[in-house]
């Protein structure tokens, strides 16, 4: 499945209706992307965090994008399973690379011109997706499942209306769970979409407004 609930939505929002902090996500070909975005007082992007969880493997990739006056200033990629690995790219006011580094297990190296263009392209793609998802009122919610009860990270109990596939998925994981599960889902005018079910408490690290910077 590719970017469900995103490009099927048509809508627009004015700056007055646009929140300065938002969370969303989408389903990509090989995994799940969760996005947290915080804008400055003029509604320009300030910080955008993309957490990519692949369907296969456990190497969650966290990419942080920072902006100055709405222009891309920093790309910082890290790996949850290997914290010593990562990529850092900084840009000056003209958009030129002022610092680059790829951290390997036992060395550091520069990025190629193709690597830099790929990271810049991905940054544009994620930013545009965040705009589309926000305009379509597609919101990410994370929470916990415990003994059949689902609560958000804020502690609010919720009843999710899920499709059959998601119901079966959750039921299978719940049958094997000792105590509780971590959940992530999308809410939109078209309905709910279950993104992740895991033996992990997403609420322990979920970004909050004012904490991205």
Description:
- This protein is of the alpha+beta class.
- An eight-stranded antiparallel beta sheet has the order 1-2-3-4-5-6-7-8, with helices on one face.
- The radius of gyration is 18 Å and the shape is globular.
- It folds into two domains: 15-136; 140-204.
- It has two helices and 13 strands, in the order E-E-E-E-E-E-E-E-H-E-E-E-H-E-E.
- The model is unreliable at 1-14 (pLDDT under 50).
Topology diagram in text:
Blueprint: E1 21-27, E2 31-39, E3 45-54, E4 61-68, E5 71-79, E6 86-91, E7 97-103, E8 108-109, H1 113-135, E9 139-146, E10 149-152, E11 157-158, H2 164-176, E12 180-188, E13 191-198
Antiparallel strand pairs: 1-2, 2-3, 3-4, 4-5, 5-6, 6-7, 7-8, 9-10, 9-12, 10-11, 12-13
Question: Strand tally, please?
Answer: 13
Give the overall pLDDT as a whole number: 88
User: Which parts are unreliable, with pLDDT below 50 for 5 consecutive residues or more?
Assistant: 1-14
Shape: globular
Give the tally of structural domains.
2
Strand content: 35-45%
Tally of contiguous helical segments = 2
Largest sheet: 8 strands, antiparallel
Helix/sheet category: alpha+beta
Query: How far apart, in Å, are the first and last alpha carbons?
Result: 32 Å
N-to-C SSE series? EEEEEEEEHEEEHEE
Which percent range fits the helix content? 10-25%
Give the C-alpha Rg. Answer: 18 Å
Strand line-up across the major sheet: 1-2-3-4-5-6-7-8
